[in-house]
Amino acid sequence: MGERKDARDEEFQSFMIGRWPRLLRTAFLLTGEQHAAEDLVQTTLEQVFVAWRRVGSADDPEAYTRRVMINAHARRHRRKLKEFLAPKDDSGLVREVPDTGDRIAQADDRSALLRALAQLPPRQREAVVLRYWEDLTETQTAQAMGCSVGTVKSNAAKGIAKLRAIPGLADMVTQGGRN
Length: 179
Description:
By secondary structure, this protein is mainly α. 72% of the residues lie in helices and 0% in strands. GO terms for molecular function: DNA binding; sigma factor activity. Belongs to the sigma-70 factor family. ECF subfamily.
């Protein structure tokens, strides 16, 4: 029995190490703060570790973990009765190291995008981050958020419309497209 537990622990550790950067990036986009993102990922991985026997044998452990993270993030908002835990300015943000395929990282002004995301309500922000930054399908996003595909479409559309209405962000995208 000890050998099986050690094997599960090693499997979880391998999973955690391999997924940490992506989970941290997603958490950062959801929370807007580096320390809050680290706390969210740690809380998520604690919950996943406790259920690792079930999670590790699931078809998609990463999707399960992402769902746990979304739920943990939502619980924090309900508990604190705040709509969003974003910084008032970006002075405390630690810049993430972008993935090589991350097109948004190529934008001229990343902080403008982060400030714009911080202005969205939590459900719209979740939908936008999961659909367009994490590149999940509508179905995968709905599963992660625990809602219907229609709700994802609605929240994503409203979020994108709000982002498009921000003049500085729209200018940045327009200028970036011409270069």
